[in-house]
Design a protein that fits this description.
The longest helix has 17 residues. The chain is mainly α. The protein is 66% helix and 0% strand.
Length: 219
């Protein structure tokens, strides 16, 4: 079978109309959602990789297609190729779920942090969010000050970018509460500050005393 037939068979076996309906309520995307479980997408991506299909053979027509491509890129061992694959995938990301699911899986790219820093100044909102989520996931613990400075400096009115900024600051409180608090005081975005505090107060990794302290700084 060619790759189109392989994908068609995969979706016939694994798509779930009820899951698709549920996912559509959570995810706003221009792509059709098939309703396939994440574990099945991961297995399928691994199968395609093992069958030595080229990344550039993969279709990008459905919501799940983009996730499969991201999982395929995750498996790729050549860092240069992985980045080239990411550049293609990023053009198709139009929602928070695809963005976060792929970004959180992109391990082994520590040497490519400049690529992600450059994305922070992108004109595309989900490219910015992708970079924030990746930096939060893989660099925050080792480069807290630098990452918080860069992320707090972002001026963007997109809800999903702002939420990613807040999420990162909240995670920063877990890594180093005092340093993150000092950095947060430099943030002049009311929404980001308040959401950072809210998310920190929802965390079980932060003490009640510190949560009570943060609540005093809601704007």
């Amino acid at each position: 079978m060619n790759i189109e037939e392989i994908y068609k068979q995969f979706y016939l076996e694994h798509q779930d109309e009820n899951k698709a309906i549920f996912d559509k309520k959570l995810i706003q995307t221009s792509y059709t959602i098939k309703g396939v479980k994440t574990c099945e997408l991961a297995k399928f991506a691994k199968f395609l990789y093992q069958q030595k299909f080229s990344f550039f053979d993969l279709p990008l027509n459905f919501h799940e297609d983009i996730l499969i491509a991201g999982m395929f890129a995750r498996i790729e061992k050549n860092i240069k190729n992985k980045i080239e694959h990411l550049k293609v995938i990023l053009k198709h990301i139009d929602n928070w779920a695809t963005c976060d699911m792929i970004a959180c899986r992109m391990k082994g790219l520590d040497s490519q942090e400049k690529f992600f820093y450059n994305l922070l100044s992108s004109a595309q909102d989900f490219e910015i969010r992708f970079a924030i989520v990746w930096l939060k996931s893989f660099k925050l613990k080792t480069d807290l000050n630098n990452i918080l400075d860069k992320i707090i400096a972002i001026k963007n009115n997109n809800y999903f970018v702002k939420m990613a900024q807040a999420w990162t600051i909240a995670e920063g409180f877990v890594v180093d509460f005092e340093k993150t608090f000092e950095k947060m005081k430099n943030c002049d975005d009311k929404f980001v500050v308040n959401k950072s505090i809210q998310k920190a107060c929802e965390s079980f990794r932060i003490s009640k005393e510190r949560k009570d302290f943060l609540k005093k700084y809601k704007i």
